[in-house]
Fold this sequence. Notes:
Elements: H1 2-18, H2 28-35, H3 39-51, E1 55-57, E2 63-65, H4 67-98
Antiparallel strand pairs: 1-2
Amino acid sequence: MAAKSTSLRRGLRILKCLKGKTMSGLANGEIAKALDESAVNISRALDVLVEEGWVSKLETGRYALSIAALQVAQAHADEMARAQNRIMEINQRVLAGAQN
């Protein structure tokens, strides 16, 4: 059980590490250094993340968040925008009612 938890944590840490690197990506060694992990462990985790569609290997051999991962982020941003619009709508109704 602990091994799975460690692997999952490593994968999640890799996803965080790749944040903001969508265009340039990071090399395996850069990720390993940033996370203070062995390159072998990072390679194993990256293989799983690529296989599961969360990470893409760029033409340069570097790794970046996949389109699927970015779609999750965009869906969250869209949901927050809808919520903000709804809050603004309610506030406008409250202000309009206060002026009557």
